[in-house]
Write a structure and sequence with these properties.
The chain is of the alpha/beta class. It has a domain of 42 residues.
Length: 93
């Protein structure tokens, strides 16, 4: 098991091995703020992750019950049918 150096927890720059382990161990990603608008960064990120085999669960209260990229949209993290390994948040600056 890889244990990253402690400084990684307090830095904005992480060791490549540490990041690879996170991405290798992550299977399900909840994407808060995922937009159905194809030209939004969240849409590109979700498509990229889906194309690489990750399970992406859209979380967007305004689109609850709809589908984005073929995935059912939930209104909150509490509504997810499974536990997410990672939460990716997209919001306006």
């Amino acid at each position: 098991m890889y244990n990253p150096p402690m400084k990684a927890a307090f830095s904005d720059r992480y060791d490549d091995l540490y990041l690879r382990k996170i991405l290798r161990d992550t299977k399900t990603i909840a994407m808060v703020g995922l937009s159905a608008n194809w030209n939004r960064p969240s849409f590109f990120a979700a498509k990229y992750l889906l194309d690489r085999g990750y399970k992406v669960i859209p979380v967007n209260p305004a689109a609850k019950g709809q589908e984005i990229l073929g995935q059912k949209v939930y209104g909150s993290l509490e509504e997810l049918p499974v536990k997410a390994d990672m939460v990716d948040i997209f919001r306006n600056s």
